[in-house]
UniProtKB/TrEMBL annotation:
The keyword Transmembrane helix applies. Keywords: Membrane, Transmembrane, Transmembrane helix. InterPro entries: Fatty_acid_hydroxylase (IPR006694), Sterol_Desaturase_Related (IPR050307). It comes from Plutella xylostella. Residues 208-336 form the Fatty acid hydroxylase domain. It comes from the Eukaryota. Its main location: membrane. It is found in: Membrane. The chain crosses the membrane at residues 39-61, 107-135, 161-185, 197-215. This is Fatty acid hydroxylase domain-containing protein.
Length: 373
């Protein structure tokens, strides 16, 4: 059995002289695969589902170093070391930034901790998911894979890990800065006492932050699908027509920072309690991994707003449609949801594409074919 897996492993990646994180990780997991498999088989289904959910959640929470910000704010709340931020204005915050009058002691500690954990979990859990599905269950792809007959080439698998490493460095550094900024008591509109702005606002923040983050990400994503921004930034993320869990952070550093800064804007503009804010962020990251996994995950009955993983997978397969993430509402409202009778290629911008069978569609398909060859 081990020998058979080794052959499959060779078919997923050619041997290279340089250090290859994918091959190394696979080799490491291979050593323990039999015992891991037996362990999972003996567990009741709900426990293995729980472990898998927790693993993906942990991956999401640590990927961009957000866990440091959460830890710092949670500790502030628990220990009561919170100077009241009430009535802090955005002008005051801007002044702190422009005059560089901010305290950032212990930055090195936050920076190192955020990166160590981020990369360790990225390779440990990301690598495990990759092995579990893409190597161990490769022969059963019809059962779990959204595009069961198409696979990302080993070169592109390595490419997405390398881009991911660079982007994680940028986003993790920003999270370390944010954690350090809050830890040192610099002005922000984050608050700590649950009822400081009333319980109604506390609970309303869940839908408000969710809608804000999802809609702004939709808008940014559509912006990055206009010809100039697509060519120089977003095209990188679209190299992966069959995305995997590693594709989630394989985004141009400029674009990923743009998205992260927009998502964090409420922390400096409106009173937000850290708990609802970061619970929504974690929810988004969890689904970011699910949506890029290439695995046929279905949304649950309690999340009617959430499209299945297939929705974003199709964005990678067909390029300029299905721009949304955790709500398919935006694509329905703006008419950018994928229409089955249209032919989308990388050259059909703005969610507009010719009908199947028309001369324009045939021309596009020929152009696409010659481009790939
Ligand atoms: Zn895109
Ligand atoms: Zn994507």
């Amino acid at each position: 059995m081990t020998a058979k897996r080794k052959t499959e492993n060779d078919s997923t990646g050619t041997k290279s002289k340089y250090w290859d994180p994918l091959q190394e990780g696979v080799k490491w997991i291979e050593k323990y695969s039999e015992s891991l498999e037996n362990f999972f088989l003996r567990l009741p289904e709900f426990i293995s589902t729980f472990i898998a959910t927790l693993a993906i959640f942990t991956l999401g929470a640590t990927l961009r170093g957000e866990w440091v910000v959460i830890l710092v704010t949670a500790l502030k709340q628990i220990t009561g070391h919170t100077t009241s931020n009430k009535n802090v204005t955005t002008a005051e915050i801007l002044q702190t930034f422009t005059t560089q009058n901010m305290k950032l002691s212990n930055f090195g500690f936050f920076f190192i901790m955020a990166h160590i954990v981020s990369y360790a979990i990225y390779f440990a859990i990301g690598g495990f998911l990759h092995w579990y599905f893409y190597i161990n269950r490769r022969h059963k792809a019809q059962e779990w894979k959204i595009q069961p007959n198409k696979w990302l080439s080993p070169e592109l698998e390595r490419h997405e890990i390398l881009v991911g490493i660079v982007s994680l460095f940028v986003t993790g550094s920003f999270s370390s800065f944010l954690a350090c900024y809050i830890y040192n008591g610099n002005p922000s509109t984050v608050y700590f006492q649950f009822d400081e702005y009333g319980w109604l606002w506390f609970f309303l923040q869940f839908p408000c932050v969710f809608i804000y983050q999802d809609y702004t990400t939709y808008i940014l994503h559509r912006m990055y699908h206009t010809p100039f921004l697509y060519k120089y930034f977003h095209k990188l993320h679209h190299k992966y027509k069959q995305p995997t869990a590693f594709s989630v952070t394989a985004i141009h550093p400029v674009e990923i920072m743009h998205v992260q800064l927009t998502a964090c804007l409420p922390l400096f503009t409106v009173p937000v309690h850290w708990l609802p804010f970061y619970l929504v962020v974690m929810y988004n990251y969890y689904h970011g991994i699910i949506d890029h996994s290439g695995i046929n995950f279905k949304s649950q009955w309690w999340q009617p707003w959430q499209p299945d993983a297939e929705f974003h997978d199709q964005h990678h397969e067909f390029f300029h449609c299905n721009f949304g993430f955790n709500m398919d509402l935006w694509d329905k409202l703006h008419g950018t949801a994928r229409k089955k009778n249209l032919v989308y290629t990388e050259a059909t911008f703005h969610g507009e594409a010719p009908r199947q069978g028309t001369a324009a569609a045939n021309k596009l398909l020929t152009e696409e074919r010659t481009k790939t060859d």
